[in-house]
Input
Amino acid sequence: QAQLVQSGGGLVQSGGSLRLSCAASGFTLEMYLIRWYRQAPGLEREWVGGINSEGTATNYASAVKGRFTISRDDSENTVYLQMDSLKPEDTAVYYCDARHILQPSDEYWGQGTQVTVSP
Output
């Protein structure tokens, strides 16, 4: 069964760091655009950032730019979200999304992972 499996969330103090992983199972991430989203309680899901299929370009939401870094290791079939200088307002459930660059309907979502940043 093709799926994305996330790991790496948890509780961290303000200013700390966490790294989220998003591993593909049952398919390869090559040819997939990867995006990260987050959803805080009571709010809509928001885009955090993304990385292209070649791993040569990333872009980020202004709220996280300069603090978060997205990378991918296709040999490990995994994408990462490195989060530094975390703030309480980064508290949310984080999701990864993989969408095939030629067939947009070929899309997978991770199960979500909780990130909680204490003051």
